[in-house]
Each structure stands twice: as structure tokens, then as C-alpha cells.
Amino acid sequence: MIHINSEFLKLRQSYLFTEIVNRTRAYEQAHPDAHVLRLGVGDVRGPLAPVVIDAMHRAVDDMATVERFHGYGLEEGPMWLRQRIIAFDYARLGISLQPEEVFISDGAGSDLGNLTDILGLHNRVAITDPVYPAYVDTNVMAGRAGVWQDDHWSDIILLPCTPENDFCPALPHVVPDLIYLCSPNNPTGTAMTFAQLKMWVDYARENHALIIFDGAYEAFIQSEDVPHSIYQIPGATECAIEVRSFSKTAGFTGVRCGYTIVPKALYGYSDKGEKVALNPLWLRRVCTKYNGTSYIAERAAEATLSDEGRRQNLDRIAEYHHNADIIRQGLQQIGMQVYGGIDSPYIWARTPDGMSSWQYFDHLLNTVQVVCTPGVGFGKQGEGFVRFSAFGLTSVAQEAMQRLKDKL
Ligand code: PLP
To answer: Are residues 320 and 300 in the same domain?
Structure first.
């Protein structure tokens, strides 16, 4: 008899993106002449930067030769890429890391889910609300969430992020062992300052907790008081794993490459109470269960880690920032309360007149044919908010805001 992992049966169905697609499609079918503008999408636009395309072409040419052909590589990634990441992404921030602390991945999503393989089931998990849904679901699959009770998981400590606390969660009453933080944040578009992140690093160290820090949107940071890496906070190498991605930095959502930093100074405890380093455990997990990132994607990632690569990618990010400005200002002009959008491609807006997230979604679709993302899809605290994304074309952001001003 085959026994399944019954934890999977506990997963809550996520209707968010299917429901958005269904409602949008139904509207378009009923109004074939309508021109619907989509500001809900969290995916980047092409094309990739020229340096990346050149590097990928060269990598393909390598594969066409006997001398430069690449077969199986190190699962944790080649030394040349790990060293380049340290030199380019961390040394300039005054952070020193060893190549063995850098693990190349196929993007942040996989490692954010897989990391808990090396952590015991009885760790108490704290997760911000609203949140990128993968943190919760992967802990449900692992069996760490307990049971669903009305509107929350019994064993997950939720950390509300609201305008009242400046979207920086307050320290919880129950001490967690594992804390997920994401800055700049999806979906709220806000980012933690040095002081806010220091509060969490100090707390994690005092309580021997581990922070899993999701820095997927690091490239969008513009504010001086927002750290680019959690390791800019003293002591963070003793309590934090940082997960990064080339997806939003360089448009790699279809190329797939990211990396995870697991410092050698991180320790956990075995069932027998022995102190065990996390770095070798993660290396073991990666070498056993991960196939390694493709050579072509790794060469593409390397190309972004150069002055010219950075410049080309920052041009695209500047375009997204410009779109975010248009959306933020447009929403403010019609009297909405908006948050984020400075250090992030996302703008988080409070729905007017006490409308629910889905009521406002329908209202926008029906009156101005603009699609946003209902905030409640990201958690209980997202109710009464919607998320707008700046990843579309500037002309779309402009037209959408014009329609809102003209008709709402
Ligand atoms: N983390 C956050 C907060 C995200 O929003 C996303 C994707 O949208 C990811 C991680 C996953 O990124 P990747 O494409 O690197 O898997």
C-alpha cells in the first residue's frame, strides 16, 4: 500500500491567481471590445540585458566544443560564480563571506521551500502577514503548521504587518525558532530599515532563533536607510540565512538562477542537544537532492555581476521605478492611501469606503477595466488592501492611472 504525505491534504487551496484570471476572462468575454489593463502581474518583462544574451550565446558555443564542454558541475555551483557573487554583491557592502557559504540555486522559490529540510519538525515558525504564500505552504507540507483553525494555522505564529506598525512586525509574545522576513516585501512593497532589521537580528540572537531572509527584491532598494543584505547588521551571520535571486534583479524568471547564503557561523541543535553547524547540512542536502543550476544560466548570472551588467539591469529597474511612481502618484491623486513602491515594484493600497479586497478588484475591473491583485490572497491582514505591480509597460501604467482619475 502506498502511504502519502498526508500533510499535503491540509494545504489550503489558493484561489488567488486562478480567480483573478477567471474573473478577468469572464469580463472580457462579456465585453469583447474592452481593453483590460493588467497591473496584477508579478513577472518581469523581457528582453534580457545584452550582456546576458551575449554570455548565454558564448556558453552555448562552449557546449559545442570538446575543450569547453560542461557536463555535471558542482551541485552547489562553480567557484567562479560564488567568488563573483561575494566580490560583486557583498564586498561592496563591506561584508566578507567565504565561497563555501554561497550556494547557487535555480531561484529563490526552491531554496525558500527546501531549506526547512535541514530543520527539525518541532521548530516554531513565525511568518509575517500578509506574505508571499510559499513560506506558509512549504511549512504545511513539512508538517510544521499544525491544523487550520477558522482563519489561521494553530502552530504558525503570525506577525501582522500593517500601516499601524509601519509594516515592520512587532516581536511576538511566543518565541519562535524560525522567522521568515522578506525585505523589500512582496506584497506590501515596503522595506525594513537598518534599525528595524537590527531589532530582529538582536532578537534572533538572544533567542537562538534562525531568520530566513528573503532578499529577492534587493535590486529595487533606493532608500539610504534600507540595508541591501541582512549581513550588514552586526551579528547576522550567526542567526540568518539570506536567499537571493536573479529573477527580479536581472529578469531571470525564465532563465532560473539565484543563490542562498548559509554562513558557517550558523548552528542548530540535534535531538541529543549537540551543537551542529547548518552549512555542512545544507551542502549535504544540496548535493543529494539538487541537480545544480545549468551552466548556461550560471554564465548568464555571472554576466550580470559586472559594472556593465549592473548598469544595463539598473536601466530596466529604473523603468519599473518610474512605473511605480506613476501608479503611486495616480492612486494618491484619487485619494487612496498607498504604501511601498519606493524600494519595490509593488504598491500596496488601502481600498476606499471599507470595500473588501475582492469588492475593489471587481469595482476596478468593471468601471475602468484595470486588474489588480486582491490583498486578502496574501493573508488575513491583506483584507481591505490591493496590490499593484509596476512590472508592466509604462504606457499601461499611465493609461490605467488616467482611467482611474477620469472615472473613479
Ligand atoms: N520571494 C519572493 C518574495 C517573491 O515574490 C518571489 C517571486 O515572485 C520569489 C521569492 C521567487 O523568486 P524566484 O523566481 O527566484 O524563484
So the answer is: no
